[in-house]
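Appendix B. Chain record.
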Amino acid sequence: MPLRAIDRLVLLRVKVEWAKKHLRDLATEILALEHTYVVIRKDDSEVPPHPITLIQRDVQFPRVPVLSFNAVCLAGDIVHNLRTALDHLAQQLALIGCPQLSQKELRGVEFPIAETLAKYEADKARKVRGMRPLAVKAIDALRPYKGGNDSLWRLHELDIIDKHRSLFTFGTDFVFTAGWFEGTYLSRTEVPHFAGVEPSAENAIKRDIQKAIGELRVGQSNALLPSLHQLVDFVDRLLTDFIPFLE
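Structure tokens predicted for this chain:
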């Protein structure tokens, strides 16, 4: 019995729902540590202070937020699951349009996102192989390239960074902790992947985590939780928009 569009959507949303779980877990990590900061001596910026002193938020010194390395991994998992959901969508669209595609042919099928329009047009034919023309047209309408669709490009680039280049960074100065080593790790970078970890809405620690995520204040355009929340919502809506092409 052929799969209905709604059945295919269920399969596609598995990865999105898993990303949502990771987002809740990430919010828990951040909410648990949002009142902890460290003193960073600006007159000794080349050598991290040792030992780094944990302080409370109300101490009036230059301070840097602290976060567990678990949060870095959770952020990467969120991004990767969302990108995977789009590739699963591409596979479904190819199988609908051309059920006889071999496994070897399907290996080249993915949701096309490129750095430039020219690169997108050059690579698209291979990535959308087997898809019906209307489905390809719907993908084209998303303008899935840098400068055409910021959300798609951001998701694609972040996934590449986490898989192949480095851990995500959250601000120019950040201190990480982990259960598998003693002390703390000071991270410094001139160009962070996220502007910082935006605090939750007031009193959110006492609320349900899911509600807290939905009420985050976007004080920085590239703060961690608001950025990831936006990407989750974007991919969730995109999959739903493709229901007409999943029959």
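Further analysis of this model is presented in Appendix C.
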